[in-house]
Amino acid sequence: MSIRWRLFISHTTMLIVTLVLFLISALLIPVAITGDIRSIKDLYTRQYALKPLTKPEENVFLDVKYLAKKQPNQLLNQTMLKQYDQKLDSVTSGLIVRKGDKIVHSSKILNSIKDEKKLPPFEPENIKVRDTISIDHQFFLYVKFDFYFPNQEKGSVIIMREVSPFVELSRSLFPLIFGLLFLSLILVNGLLSYFVSKSIIKPLFSLKNATEQMGEGNLNVKIEYDRQDEIGQLNHAFDKMRTKLKESIKLQLQYEESRKELISNISHDLKTPITAIKGYIEGIQDGVAESQGKTERYLSTIKRKATDMDQLIDDLFLFSKLDLKKMPFSFEDIEIIRYIINFVEEIGFDLEEKDIKIFVKNRTENEVRVIADRDKLRRVLSNIINNSIKHMKKAEKQIEIYIQGKGDFVEIEVRDNGSGIEQESLPYIFERFYRVDTSRNKSTGGSGLGLAIAKQIITEHGGDIWVESKLGIGTSIFFTLKKTI
Ligand SMILES: Nc1ncnc2c1ncn2[C@@H]1O[C@H](COP(=O)(O)OP(=O)(O)OP(=O)(O)O)[C@@H](O)[C@H]1O
Ligand SMILES: [Mg+2]
């Protein structure tokens, strides 16, 4: 069953139930108040019984009552009775005079009452003077006075007015009321269903269309969600899902692209030394290297190339393990200043050989403890310093390491006075295989994995790594490590 039909049925049921409950309570309220089931019928009759007489009725009634007591025979005087009729006519009431079992006078307005027996009975005590009475499905409100004529015949004067009790009225109006109710039911239902379905079904349809379009691969279908209700929330969630999906597909494509690039880079970096090695071996085999010295040179070149390849494969292996998060880390509490000083002392000899001065400058307390993996941190420092060494062209060669506290972190800056890096390249130097010198010149660059590995390691430590550099002046690589709490 469609939602539209469900809504229509639920609205109809609601309206019918309300209607029925309304009717039941209308009937039960008098019972609840009086505690008597007959009160339902009485409610309406009593209401009339309590109604006061109109002024002309009151006057005529006082007159005829007076006559009945003093001169009852005057009540047979038709000319006088006609005058009363006229007075009562103005308020649609009438006068009946009964003598014995006969109606001796009846106003025109009460002509329909022919049968004397249907009138209120004779009651000499005159207790029930005012009441209502039903005669042939007509309801009358009356006021009556009973007396005796001089000949001891029973006499009554009755002033009567026809009234429409609720039951009578509703019986005659029932088809109309029912028709109107039914019509308003259909109208209200139609309107309710229209507005509700407009606010629910329409957005559902647009959501369905959007889903279909997404199913066909169009992830650019924008769904409006400016509404604050549940539909708005649904649309918002849907749109969020769409953007996430779009992002993940984009990321997937990027991964795919970089995977292809990775394979091509690896192939290139492996192919070059292998081709060279092959060339040298062929040279030796073909006897190009006749002299012992040349053969030695060829062999040492082959060895260097093989070592480079070995290094590249090691780097690649380390990088991919870090990338896949398969590299185990053994974090320790390290005193970082001592650690760096030790590291500098270790590499000091190599640097001295290359005529490079290195300094450690501590700008924080004498002791700072961090959480780090000793071996991996060593790798980070040597990757950074190797770059500095490679790009050092000036006569005065210098590397400075600054250590300073930054809140919960320690910031380490490795600053060189080397060639510097052009601004356009700065955002990319931490990307794998990225090298500023794209010619892949062996003298200045390696595989382009050094800083990518450093970044992976520092990220795994919960720190950050970045670069500042000025072409011709020097480069600073910064990284942070979390202090031990
Ligand atoms: N201190 C520096 N001075 C000048 N250029 C630098 C410096 N550090 C990095 N670079 C530039 O950033 C590039 C990326 O460095 P990265 O260490 O990732 O790769 P690489 O040194 O070329 O290769 P690898 O480190 O794998 O042997 C380098 O090729 C170099 O051009
Ligand atoms: Mg490097």
Helix content: 40-55%
Quickly give the structural class: alpha+beta
- Compounds present? adenosine-5'-triphosphate, magnesium ion
Shape: rod-shaped
In CATH, the architecture of the largest domain is 2-Layer Sandwich
Can you count the beta strands?
A: 12
Specify the biggest β-sheet: 5 strands, antiparallel
**Contiguous runs where pLDDT drops below 50 for at least 5 residues:** none
Would you identify the CATH H-level superfamily of the largest domain?
Histidine kinase-like ATPase, C-terminal domain
Q: How far apart are the first and last residues' alpha carbons, in Å?
A: 64 Å
| Alpha-carbon Rg, integer | 56 Å
EC number: 2.7.13.3
Domain HAMP: 198-250
Transmembrane segments: 12-33, 173-196
Domain Histidine kinase: 265-485
Please tag this protein with its features.
Beta-Lactamase, 53% helix, 3 domains, binds adenosine-5'-triphosphate, binds magnesium ion, 485 residues, alpha+beta, five-stranded mixed β-sheet, Heat Shock Protein 90, five-stranded antiparallel β-sheet
In short:
The chain is of the alpha+beta class and 485 residues long. Helices cover 53% and strands 18% of the residues. Pfam families: HAMP, HATPase_c, HisKA.
